[in-house]
Amino acid sequence: MTRLRKFKRASLLLAFTAFVLVAVASWFGDRAPPNSGNHPPDDYPELFVDSRDCPQRGDAFENGRRLEELARVRADRYAYDGRDGVRAVEHYQEAEACYRAAGAGDRGQRVRRALTVLTVRVNTDYAAARLNLVNALEQKRWPAALSEIHRLLLLTQHLVGDEYVEWLKKIIGRVAAKASTA
Q1: Run of H or E including 44
Q2: What is the CA radius of gyration of the chain?
Q3: Considering the domain boundaries, does residue 154 fall inside one?
Q4: Alpha helix (H) residue ranges in the chain
Q5: Whole-angstrom Cα distance, residue 1 to residue 16?
Q6: Residue 47 domain-assigned (yes or no)
């Protein structure tokens, strides 16, 4: 009889140990974080990776002058619309290429300085918006998160098909719904 009791006790202990091991394995195993939809992909796109060329039509110097003026106008409007900052950088890149092609080095240097300043400003705003979005999502400040999503979508509008941009488009509806009830 004691042998049977020892066997039952050992079986019960073995079953309990197996249950605990399974529970611990499932607790520490690979599982998605509870709010994985709120976390952005690890890799975000660079806003300005491709250099721009001078348009082939017309005089290179005149194209540079026109593109520089257009870039200045867009840069002035950047405070009101993020897309204008991105477009201004692109126009400055084209203007610089045109001045280089026309042999106007002094104007090209001036455009390069303006391009550098604006690129830093836009990239800084882009980084701040990404950080603000992550903080707003973690703190469940839905109206602030929605505002940052809109800001980021304006800045990344030219990046079609990027994983980060697609993630922004995917979560905007859910965040808008939560913001409307907050």
Answers
A1: none
A2: 28
A3: yes
A4: 2-28, 60-77, 82-102, 105-138, 142-155, 163-181
A5: 23
A6: no
Any domain includes 48: no
Three-class DSSP category at 78? coil
Determine contact, residues 97/54, Cβ cutoff 8 Å: yes
Per the structure, the count of domains in the chain is 1
Q: Could you read off the pLDDT tens digit of each residue along the chain, which spans 182 residues?
A: 566 566 566 565 555 555 544 554 555 554 444 444 666 777 889 998 878 888 888 899 999 999 999 999 999 999 999 999 999 999 999 999 999 999 988 999 999 999 999 999 999 999 999 999 999 999 999 999 999 999 999 999 998 888 999 999 999 999 999 888 86
| The token pair that represents 135 in the structure block | 């903080």
Rounded CA separation 89/117 (Å): 10
Quick check: is 17 in a domain? no
Provide CB contacts within 8 A for 179, sequence distance 6+: 142, 143, 145, 146
Per the structure, the complete domain to which residue 128 belongs is given by 53-181
Return the amino acid letter for 62: E
The residue to which tokens 């200045």 are assigned: 72
